[in-house]
Amino acid sequence: MDYKTLAKEARIAVLGLVYKAQLSHIASNLSIIDVATVLYEKVDLAKDRVVWSAGWKAATIYYFLYKKAVLSKEQLEQFPNAPFYGLAETEVPGIEVNGGSMGHGLPVALGMAFAKKRSGEPGTVYCVLSEGEQNEGSVWEAVMLAEHHSLDNLVVIIDVNKIQATGYTKDIINLEPIEDRWKGFGWEVARIDGHSFEEIESGLKPGSGRPKVVIADTIKGKGVSFMEGILLYHYKSIDSETYAKALSELQND
Fold first, then answer.
1. I need a surface site. Which of 29, 56, 72, 224 has the fewest CB within 10 A?
2. Residues 109 and 158 sit within 8 Å (Cβ to Cβ)
3. Which one is the CATH code of 3-251: 1.10.1040.50, 3.40.605.10, 3.40.50.970, 2.30.130.10?
4. What pTM was computed for the model?
C-alpha cells in the first residue's frame, strides 16, 4: 500500500477545503492525516466504527468519509455549509459524535464497544482523541470503565502534536509520561511515531483481552514547513498567499 502518496493527496485536499472555507485548525488537521490514511484503509465500516472526539479536524474526517464512499464528492464540496460545518456534526453520514466540546467522544465510543461486546457483534471501535482532551475528567472515567469491562474491541488513538488551543501542552497541563498514565489504568499501550506508516499500521491492531491506546507522536502542521510546531496555525485561517506557498510545498514533497 502506497500510504505516502495517499497521505500526500489527503493533505492537498484538506488544505484546499480549509482554505476555501476560510476556517482555522489547519495545523491540527495536518498532524493526524498520516494516522487517518492508514486507519481508513484498514477499517471495514460495515462492522467497525470510527469516533472522532477531536471533531475540529472536520475537513480530514469528511475527506476520508468521501474516500470510503460514505460521502459523495458533491457533499464534500458543500464544506463548510450546513450540515458540513467546520466542527463535525452527527447530521453528516458517518459522524458518530458532535465535535466541539472536548472529552465526549471516548464515552460514546466506550458505549458502542460495550454494546458490541454484549450483543456479540464483530468489529472494532476506534476513537480519535486530541492530546489536550486528556485535561477532561470524562476521558478518565471512560478509561477506567473500559478497562473494568475488558473492552478489547476499543482502540483509542491520541494525536500528540504537543500543542492545544491556548499554548504548548507541557505548559498547560504536562501529561508526560502519557503512556504511564494509561498503563496505570490497565490499558495496553503502544507509543508510536505518528508519521511512520509502518508503526501506525502495527499500532492500530486491537489489544489482547483489554482496551488499547495508541499514543501517536505527531507534528502540528506536518508537511508544511512554516506551520510545523507553530501555535499560530491552531486558529489562524489561510490567505491566498499562504495557501499557494503551502500547496507548493505539499505538491513538491
1. 72
2. no
3. 3.40.50.970
4. 0.96
